[in-house]
Design a protein that fits this description.
Length: 71
């Protein structure tokens, strides 16, 4: 299982995946708004999204667990 953690704090602007979705490495999982900039988070591996720990509109912090992907 691969865990995607946030590199910075901000606000979750758009969630593009949900548990059960198949993703390819490089697909955008979600977009954070950080200081009025949109920061996309790509999938580090291909696989199935097993869990999401954030939702649109959430205020999030650095190092927070966002998404889990099973190969």
């Amino acid at each position: 299982m691969t865990k995607v953690e946030l590199e910075t704090g901000g606000s979750v602007w758009k969630m593009l995946v949900k548990p059960g979705d198949q993703v390819a490495q490089g697909d955008t999982l979600f977009i954070l708004e950080v200081m009025k900039m949109e920061v996309p988070y790509p999938a580090p591996i291909s696989g199935e999204v097993s869990a999401t720990h954030i939702t649109e509109g959430d205020a999030v912090e650095e190092d927070q667990l966002a998404v889990e992907i099973s190969p």
